[in-house]
């Protein structure tokens, strides 16, 4: 990638940046780990490491692969206006460790169950859809819990494509912390509007005013101070002001976003998280971004393929279909895809298998190349 540093490069291939610096030094090139390196330097390094420096990004490569099957990942430019339907906003919940992101989502979800959403045992699927009433309209919001997951990294990279709004959770007793800043920078870089949830206001030592002051310094100026960022004081524990938070999200969506998707086409979207279940086999939580996913569809998710055997929502209820912005647990895949990888519905099982096989072969080749590079570097450092 353009502007990449040795640190970026080292991270990509899973080696230590310092050894790359040293190797370049021995080749007569003085480069620090953090400065961006030009293509020639990268190529020089690649030659030395027996590594093909990829001028093409993996995303471009995948796009080409799909194009060879006449599939385009992403919004179709030619979509007829008439086919577009309103879709719920996709909201990522971000913030510093332990500031209450997961608890807040649980509170929002359980408030929903009480509201009669139905259901069996709640499932942890990493993504949830809740209903709220705003001005008499029933509105839905899709939440994605980010922390801890790899999905976060991948999603950050995909930026605004995967998330429409970011809810920045800041604990009022702790204030702005390093990951608060990191999270808000990612949202800003992706151009995603931010709603601030000042959490834990039930605590006696909570100081929500201080949080406002701190965030103002990072350019998030509260509306009540004349800025344009909505701040909502909440308590996930005491379930305080949850409705206000939902309303702020809906208002943000209505004010600045045109959220529509073609529900009629084959489904496409992202893998939020996935695991191997003893009884059910590979289970993947996916977010449908466009189109409608049906039970029985032939699907490719990363290097996994299969036919959708069953779909479950966040309450464990079976779904027969899932439209735009809906998170769903999908059963029936051949393997466990990676968080952040895309999924697509294709014509038939044969095509699904062909695409999956090509992706798998590519992943395997990349892994082998990385291993080779590591060995070469180890030999170099030992010599
Ligand atoms: P990571 O996923 O590790 O980044 O943390 P998180 O942001 O998801 O935090 P989590 O929801 O796990 O909550 C962390 C701790 O704070 C737990 O012990 C929660 O019970 C507590 N907590 C969360 N929200 C509140 C709140 O509103 N009030 C109080 N008093 N405690 C809360
Ligand atoms: Mg959490």
From TrEMBL:
Residues binding GTP: 95-102, 145-149, 199-202
Residue intervals of the Tr-type G domain: 86-258
Subcellular location: Cytoplasm
Family, similarity comment: Belongs to the TRAFAC class translation factor GTPase superfamily. Classic translation factor GTPase family. IF-2 subfamily.
Role according to the record: One of the essential components for the initiation of protein synthesis. Protects formylmethionyl-tRNA from spontaneous hydrolysis and promotes its binding to the 30S ribosomal subunits. Also involved in the hydrolysis of GTP during the formation of the 70S ribosomal complex.
Protein name: Translation initiation factor IF-2
Taxonomic classification: Bacteria, Bacillati, Actinomycetota, Actinomycetes, Propionibacteriales
Residues of the full protein shown: 342 to 724 of 934
